[in-house]
Every structure is written in C-alpha cells, then in structure tokens.
Amino acid sequence: MKSDHRPATAFRLIVTGGGTGGHTYPALTAIRALQKRLSSEARALEVLWIGTADGLEARVAPAEGIAFATVATGKIRRSSNPLKMMSAANVKDMARVPLGVARARKLVADFQPDVVLATGGYVAVPAGLAARMCRRPLVLHEQTVRLGLANRKLAGSATRIAVSSESTVPLLPEAVRGAAVVTGNPVRPEVLAGNPDKAVEALGLHGFDRRLPTAYVTGGAQGSQQINNLVRDVLPWLLEQANVIHQCGPDHVDELRRHAAALPAPLAGRYYLAGFVGSELPDVLALADIVVSRSGAGTLAELTALGKPAVFVPLASSAGNEQAHNARHLEDAGAAVALLGDVTARRLQDAVGPLLADPARRDAMAERARAHGRPDAADRLVDVILSAASG
Ligand SMILES: CC(=O)N[C@H]1[C@@H](OP(=O)(O)OP(=O)(O)OC[C@H]2O[C@@H](n3ccc(=O)[nH]c3=O)[C@H](O)[C@@H]2O)O[C@H](CO)[C@@H](O)[C@@H]1O
User: Fold this and answer.
1) Can you tell me the distance from the alpha carbon of 29 to that of 51, in angstroms, rounded to the nearest whole number?
2) Is the ipTM of this complex over 0.90?
3) Relative to the CA of 223, which ligand 1 atom is closest?
4) Same domain (yes/no): 18, 126
C-alpha cells in the first residue's frame, strides 16, 4: 500500500568555527541539540563542519562522526606594533584568505545548507563569507562579551547573532543590533552529569584523602605556564589541605612531574597531573570543591551551569582583555575570586586558603555562580538556527 507519509527532507547544517575549545564545544553542543530536536520531529540532520586541519575541531568532529572539511585560513597575529602586523607570517597567511574563501564557497554551494552556523575562530571567516555569497542564512554564535575578530568581520552578513550575555547587545554596532538574540553559551550536557566516584576510579586517585576538599586546577586546553608556576610554588602548602587535580597542558607534564617527585609520600598521593582532561572532565568537575582556572568563556559557562566556586587567573593578553572582564563580572556577583594584575603565589594562597577552609563559604559562592548559569543555552541556539532557516 502506498503511504501518504513521505519522510521530511533532512535539515542541512554547515558548522564552522574552532581552533580552541571555546569555539569548538559550543558548536558541537549545538549540533547535538539540533539533532535531538529534529529527531523528535522525525527529521534527519546532515552536518558538514568546516574547520582547520590543526584545530581541536579536527579531532572532535570526526570522533563524533561528523563530516569534516578543511579550508585554508589566515590566522592574523594581533599586535599593537604595525610592523609586527606586517610580519612575513601574517602577510603569508593573509594571502591564503582568498583561497580559503574560494574553497568554502564551493563547499557551501555543493552542500546547499539550510543554515551556516559560525562559532568564531579565524576559520569561521571564509565559510561565513561564503554563506553570504551563496545567499544562505548565517547564524553567528559569540561566547564572549565582546564580539571576537571573526564574528566582527561577519556581523554585517549575519541573519542572526546569538550572544551569550545581555551585556553584549549594547556593544554591537547599531546596524546589526536588531539581529542579536541572547542565548547563553551552550555547555556539553555530559559536563553537567559527572560522578565524583568515577573520577577516582578512572584516574586512579586512590591516594586522595576524601575527607579533604579537592581543587581542580586548569589552564585551558594548552595549559597555562603562569598557573603552573603559581601552583608549583604553593604545592606542599596546598596539598596539606586539599587533593589537587592539575591540568597543566600536554607540553608541561614532564617538567611538573619532575618537580612533584620531591613531594613526601602522603602529599604526593594527593596530587594528580594531567596534560589534558578528556572524557573524564565531567567527573573531575563533579569531584572538585573549588576550581582554579583561566576565565575563558567556555570554562565560565561550565562552572556557572554547575555552580562551582572558582578562583580565576585571567589570561592578560586575551582579546580586549575579555578574560579579566569575565572574571571581574563573577567576582562582583560574589560567585568567584578574580586575581587580576600581577598574581603572586602569596595572592593565590590568600584566595584559595579561606575557600578550602570554609565549606559554607564555598556553598554560598556556588549558589551565586549557579544563578549565572544558562543550562538552556543549547536549546535557545537551536531555536535561533531553526528560525533563521525558516526566513
Ligand atoms: C587563549 C584564548 O584565545 N582563549 C579564548 C578561547 O578560550 P579557550 O578555548 O582556551 O577556553 P574556554 O574556557 O572558552 O574553553 C575551554 C574548553 O576546553 C575544555 N577543556 C579544557 C582543558 C582540558 O583539559 N579539557 C577540556 O575539556 C573546557 O572544559 C572548556 O570547555 O576562547 C574563549 C571563547 O571564545 C575565550 O573566552 C578565550 O579568551
């Protein structure tokens, strides 16, 4: 018998963005949330991710079974010195931009997406421009308070600009403000579902003293030399009162391990070093009573969605000093401690010590952090994508 029910056509999405975790994970989370929404309507999703060969997205997308294509991009190294801006590396990279746009244009023309979603990072520029050339709806997602460089370039071409904070809207150029929608910054759902005991098992943390609080120290995907040095300087003191999981960046593990070899036995058992925390991240966050961290937008979205007391050591050279802004914003809300300016080991001790000693203070801070979380950000971004597709 002939059925009247023809399968609805698949929704076709091109995602572009990446480089760091801050641009990659929101894209991944949006894809998964869109998939879930569409499958509840018995509709399929077809996705193509356009990224760079050496960014985090080149590992994340294929691991999730997402079709992945690369384009040449121009990574412009910012400098206040105009001579440095014209460095050989910058000039060479700028020359690659037209190549990237041409390739992206072909990819977009062939794939015919319903929407192109750009989540920032310099790779987003060619595919974003290609969306406009091929007259496909372009949705930008911005994680930070001020638009990043790629999103600034694309803002004039965007159908919608999804932003993570209300305070972004007045900072947008007036001509594009009408396209802004506040969604929040999507957090991977698994990050919100960690289990502390699993972290102990998976990482073999059997030397941890569970009567003590646990501190998770993280410098972002590459690690932070500054945070590593600070922690190294206070390590014996810190381990007297806490277990410590220290994510230090893949390039710094050996050096820190050599340093830790001098720790006496009970303290050494309470110290766990990792270059990068992969699938265990949710469980590590669940185990953590406090977090010492850079204040990138992705990390902040996760810590506020979870409600974790944090001590932030912002990256001073982040674009527009946005990490300092992020950290100060949460400190003003009583949800974190922000160590701005010159951070010494003494300042870190003075910030971390009272928190480790006072569970009630940690709880109050966690509560205030949670008030800033937006666990529904992925769903809101899906609404924006679907509405952009329907014109
Ligand atoms: C140096 C730089 O340009 N930083 C920017 C970059 O941050 P960057 O990507 O470095 O940092 P974010 O805090 O935004 O995101 C890091 C992500 O990686 C995850 N993670 C980290 C370490 C680890 O071992 N395992 C792991 O999974 C974190 O949980 C988080 O999801 O993009 C952010 C969002 O646009 C900006 O706010 C930052 O200023």
Assistant:
1) 16
2) yes
3) 22
4) yes
> What tokens does 205 get?
């943390």
Q: Which of 38, 56, 72 is nearest to 119 (CA)?
A: 56
By DSSP bridging, strand 336-338 and strand 138-142 are unpaired
pLDDT per residue as tens digits for the range 282-331: 999 999 999 999 999 999 999 999 999 999 999 987 777 889 988 998 99
pLDDT of 5 above 70? no
Q: What is the pLDDT of residue 76?
A: 54
20 labeled part of a ligand binding site: yes
Find tokens 């922690």 and name the residue. 231
Count of CB atoms within 10 A of residue 216's CB? Answer: 26
Regarding whether 340 and 261 lie in a shared domain, the answer is: yes
Residue 1 — very low, low, confident or very high, per pLDDT cuts 50/70/90?
very low
* Amino acid at site 377: A
Question: Residue 45 is part of a domain; what is its CATH number?
Answer: 3.40.50.2000
The answer to whether position 4 is within a domain reads: no
pLDDT tens track for 73-126: 866 555 545 555 566 666 667 677 888 999 999 999 999 999 999 999 999 999
User: Which residues line the pocket of ligand 1, CB cutoff 6 A?
Assistant: 20-23, 25, 120, 143-144, 148, 218, 220-221, 247, 276-277, 281, 296-299, 302, 315, 318, 322-323
Instruction: Report whether 22 belongs to an annotated binding site.
Output: yes
Q: Does the annotation flag 188 for ligand binding?
A: yes
Q: Which residue has the least CA distance to atom 31 on ligand 1?
A: 298
| 143 appears as a binding residue in the annotation | no
By residue range, what is the domain housing residue 278? 189-370
Cα of 23 from ligand 1 centre, angstroms: 8
CA 314-229-306 angle, to 5 degrees, is 45
Atom of ligand 1 nearest to the CA of 294: 13
